[in-house]
Design brief:
Blueprint lengths: L3 E2 L2 H5 L3 E6 L5 E5 L15 E3 L3 E2 L6 E2 L6 H11 L12 H7 L1 E36 L3 E31 L4 H8 L8 E2 L8 E4 L5 H23 L4 E30 L2 E8 L5 E3 L5 H28 L4 H20 L1 H17 L4 E2 L3
Helix pairs in contact: 2-3, 6-7, 6-8
């Protein structure tokens, strides 16, 4: 399909401006006259308005937002609890203030499938066996064990079916993005209305239908495999192969709802994404290294002071033995504090390193 510049207001029915990030290259649609200072996705590069290339059709359907402002506030409040040395900006009220509605694109593909298939289908069956066990109270006894096994049989046949609304990635990073969303119930979609994208940011697909076809073909194969398994009354299917023609393909765009927000810590901005349907929150919950280091420094300073006082009392105790006991006690307390002092700094460092490994990479602070 040839892509060309389009009039967004005429096609989408809403006053939208296309922008592109100078850093990551991703394109978005934002409300006209509301150009963000930074990229809504990476928070790094400056953005500028650019003519965009999109299909001549608007989105066909959207998943409506099911998380209200009150529910979003409650979810963020719960998510920010229980963090050691919580950063000053990691607060529910600030995250809520910065939260923006954000739509993620997904292709829906319809088409006719006609071809031949081969697979192995599996049928569960039960195997009964007996195991002898010995107990001191009852001696030897035999117990029945039921084991489920699978009988595999080859099958082949022809298929001619039409499948509608098969979800297909519209983004290069679809897997990571959907992973951050935590899943979406695609059955709860409604027809697109221009009001849906007012005051919202829409990410523009990075995969056009031609580029997204491998994902669409895989979706057709999965749908055909499930139907062939059902037709065979099988419990499992494996090694499914399909040689088919795909006709009457129709591509439509579905928008998935999310909220995006961010907080700043350590001179960087950390993104937070909230599933607009379920309220699932994804993001790195950082601890403040500055607070942890300050705590460790204070504990270490207190340990040093106690050690000095204990040493002086221990020396005085050479002449006054009761003072020596007090000095020894203070020395022990100082030693314990010295052992505990590094824990906050080391613990936060380890926690933040794990967070960096399991979440989106850190982003420079917004100006």
């Amino acid at each position: 399909m040839e892509r060309q510049s389009v009039d967004m207001a005429a096609i989408w029915g809403a006053a939208l401006t296309a922008i592109r990030c100078a850093h990551c290259g991703e394109a978005h649609l934002v409300p006209e006259g509301n150009l963000p200072a930074r990229c809504p996705l990476c928070l790094q590069g400056p953005v500028e308005a650019q003519p965009t290339v999109l299909r001549q059709e608007p989105p066909e359907q959207v998943i409506p937002y099911a998380v209200s402002g009150r529910q979003l506030a409650a979810a963020l409040e719960q998510w920010t609890r229980g963090i050691w040395f919580r950063p000053r900006e990691l607060r529910a009220d600030l995250l809520l203030q910065r939260a923006k509605r954000y739509y993620i694109p997904l292709w829906l593909v319809d088409g006719q499938v006609r071809g031949a298939w081969q697979a192995e289908v599996g049928f569960d069956y039960q195997v009964v066996s007996y195991q002898d066990r010995y107990s001191e109270s009852g001696g030897w006894s035999s117990q029945q064990v039921n084991e489920t096994r699978v009988r595999w049989e080859p099958r082949a046949g022809r298929i001619e079916r039409r499948y509608d609304n098969l979800p297909t990635p519209a983004l290069d990073d679809h897997r990571a993005t959907i992973g951050r969303l935590g899943g979406v119930n695609l059955e709860r979609r409604t027809d697109y209305q221009p009001e849906a994208v007012q005051d919202a940011t829409v990410r523009i697909p990075t995969l056009d239908p031609d580029e997204a076809w491998p994902g669409a073909e895989a979706a057709f194969v999965r749908a055909a495999a499930a139907e062939c398994q059902q037709a065979a009354s099988a419990d499992h299917v494996r090694d499914f192969r399909l040689q088919a023609e795909y006709r009457d393909l129709n591509w439509s765009l579905l928008l998935l709802p999310a909220y995006v927000t961010w907080y700043q810590e350590g001179g960087r901005a950390w993104p937070v994404m909230v599933n607009g349907q379920s309220g699932h929150i994804s993001g790195a919950r950082r601890a403040s290294a500055r607070k942890a280091n300050t705590t460790s420094l204070l504990l270490g300073s207190a340990a040093l002071i106690l050690f000095v006082i204990g040493s002086i009392l221990a020396l005085v105790g050479l002449a006054l033995p009761p003072v020596a006991v007090l000095g020894g006690f203070i020395l022990v307390v100082g030693l314990l504090l010295a052992l505990v002092a590094p824990i906050p700094a080391i613990g936060v460092w380890i926690k933040n390193r794990k967070g960096e490994a399991t979440h989106a990479p850190p982003l420079p602070a917004r100006e």
